Amino acid sequence: MPRPATTNLSSEIGLRRYLDAIKHLPMLTQEQEQSLAKCWREHNDLEAAHRLVVSHLRLVAKVAMRYRGYRLPMSEIISEGSIGLVKAINRFEPERGFRLATYAVWWIKAAIQEYVLRSWSLVKMGTTPNQRKLFFNLRQLKARLAALEDYDLHSDQVEFIANKLGVTEQEVVYMNSRMSGDTSLNAPLRGRAEGEWQDLLVEGEDNQEHKLVQIEEASNRHRALVDSLGVLNEREQRVLEARRLADNPRSLADLSSEFGVSRERVRQIEVRAFEKLQNAVKVVYAKRDAMRRRTHDLGVASIPHPDPGASWGSP
Question: Model-level pTM?
Fold first, then answer.
């Protein structure tokens, strides 16, 4: 039997040529089909397997055409369907008495649907039976409801689809939002005069200016704290650092044993040292504010001001 000529399916013209070519491939009778299937199963007869494949390529194309609405290359859909056909032939049991087409159509559809789900979006979808059912039936049900493809469904439409397919309303809403495919963040907002989808994204982190302000403020607080520690004596510094500044603060009992005083006395030293440090930090900040204002005033004073009585532009 002559083999069909290899056809390039990468273009629309190539696809039409392929479909025209497979129209002329001979069909098999049930007796021929049973005989070829047995030869393949029992003797690994490649010629028999080839005849089974080419005689059902029209079935693959027919099933594949149902998935044109998913905006995927028809050449790829037909190729995936052909893979499903080969898998069906490998598992076909002719002794059961039914036709290969009846069995193969399920394998062809499964292979094509797997390809569509895999290629539809960068984000994996259709991972549960309900999601797969929604994905391949939602468009048809929306057409029956005359629902616009790119817009949200009304609550009564969501309820109807959920009841029809035996899924939850939340699943219907989620799949409907995914059916439009992936959208570029640079795409214009729907129904707006200007703006892009990326304009609606909320940045999870502070902007650079705010980060710089926070870093500078933390640095100022640290310098003020270091400059103010000098107002404390050695014991006060030791108690305050152990109680307030350490990652693992020590207990009053530990410091009481170290300094040979009561725990109440240690607490009093801590409170007094903290108050002294607070007042010293306030003094440091006040001095810095005064210095900042003085610098600003000097800068303003150094800017030459025009004489109100002078004539602008005169030599």
Answer: 0.52
